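On clarity, I found the account of how folds are encoded harder to follow than it need be. For illustration, here is how one protein appears when written out as sequence plus structure tokens:

:::
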Amino acid sequence: MSAKVELQGEQPARYDGVAMLLHWVIALLIFFLIALGLYMDHASVSDPVALHQLHKSVGIITMLLIAVRIIWRLTHKAPPLPQGMSGIQRVMAGSVEGILYLFQILLPATGWLMVSAMAMPLVLFGLVAWPLIPLPQSVMDSGSLAEMMPGLHQWLGWIFAGFIALHVLAALYHRFIKKDHIVERMVPGHRSDR
């Protein structure tokens, strides 16, 4: 049997090309969204509406890619963690991965809910109208959800940034201290079987 043929049920040594592409594209989009969000909060700009529309547009695209990534992850096996990892490290790795996926869902969902509660138009890149989440008229009339959502979205963003930093630090630890090649499983062009 060719080495390139993966037996059904066998775990791959590395993530496949689709998983890698989704991981790195989504990571870049998330870094862009965080940077743009910080810029919008702290800079006086001549056209804040354009920046908000860009943030919302990229956020929706990222949300759609995250949905694809989750479906791909559920239908394709991930490579195993190194055998030398302790039980606590395995639990931490799984927990942080789960939390990162959760925040990748929560942040765009709260952003979408926020603009829906504020009845703000959502037009992707000025070209495609995106529907708002239908909310009960009583919720719209009270305005409490519209008042609460910006703060919630911002705080979730800060917490998410903290978990991203933890994820990056863990990757650096594995790459430069443990040298167990766990990072290479998600880097195109690297071999993890050295």
The CA atoms of residues 20 and 187 lie 7 Å apart. The chain is about 65% helix and 0% strand.
